[in-house]
Amino acid sequence: MNPVLVGRVLLPLKEKLAGRDTFVRLKELEAAERCPASQLRAVQLEKLRKLLRHCEARVPYYRDLFRKNGIVPDEIRDPGDFGRVPLLTKPVVRQELKRLAACSWPVRPLPRVTSGSSGEPLAFYVDPARVACDVAATWRILRAEGVAIGARGVIMRGPFPYRPWSKGWGDLLLNVRLFSAADMSFAQMERFAGVMRRFKPRYILGYPSAVYRFCVFLNERGYSSDEFGVRVVLSVSEALHDFQREAIVKTLGCRAVNIYSSLEAGMMASECPEGKMHVSQNVYLETVAAQTPVPNREIVVTHLESYGMPFLRYRTGDLGILREGACSCGRPTPVLERLEGRVADFILTPDGGAVHALVLFQALNRLKGASRIAQLRVVQKAATELEVWVVAPAALREAIGREIVAAFSRILGPRVRVRPVFVEEIRSGPGGKARPFVSELPGSAQR
To answer: I need a labelling partner for 138 at 20 to 30 A (CA). Which of 28, 169, 272, 367 fits?
Structure first.
């Protein structure tokens, strides 16, 4: 379908029929990038007070919570005042689901359920305004990367039900093809490659584990980046590791942009051309002391446009550090200086210490055979035993195994036995997401 027709006619019509003001949100996001940081903070604070007033008037859970804690929305004047609102956790959402929904809200909320890749599936609701914000944020990134709204694109997440490519009329009309990350078999990836050669997508949006696995497949089959025409890959819902980025950029000949997002909180931050993770104007981000074996900061989020079921100060379970100050790219929003994985992703050592699994994945970047590893999962069986499941070519397994043992042993010490286990495939978790680290220790936060 002609991209101009899609971008100027079909997509506006689709968003209007869905009751979403997505194009208005897009203009607001792009205008905000030219605002002084002080003005942007003032706008966010006023949006926050407006959301709090809404919660007090229409959301039973928050009405009672504010009354109990003596919180008056119009008295919230700075982050310290907002910090008096108790943190929201997944168990509370499950327990108070009905009372978290706004009463007499004129817009019908849309049900959502997280993938459960962390071991904790979560059901909740979003309204069209929240969805519009997330779509607009994605469009803003694409436009910044030189990709027009309505351009051909591939969504590689899922799971999506299989259907013949020629029968997905809605996808055809909107210039989108859906590739299920829950089915990355060789036969399916060969089909993906054939579709992409004909379709010539300008962008791919997907789980980095799925895009990376696809790129390893393309390399092994001898495909060239010239056959696809991809300009940018948007990495969502999982951590984008350096070895994955390197393989994606080299294989597809394009930029890879890291996006920090979740189904519950929407798009929270995205990478600028300078490689900094800028917090979205649609959310208010904080960090609090994390419940981890070693000192860390956990990311807490409030989506400023989520009125159907507001999540105030929601604990994401992700670790990171926020930094204020100007970025050389010119954007005024705060920067997530470090995004360090999940609270539960710690490997416990025999001496009572802890190492975040991300440290091991970073060590993979220096392995000679890293680019030939199609999939990998670290499984802690005991404080002294670590299994590393690996999908790699048979001819390279012995060498890769030696490299992994040497690299991981240097980090974890001689008392931890590192055992490579070579397999043909590592099945994705719920929703098609990868689970790069699994702890089987009693009492683990993942269990």
So the answer is: 169
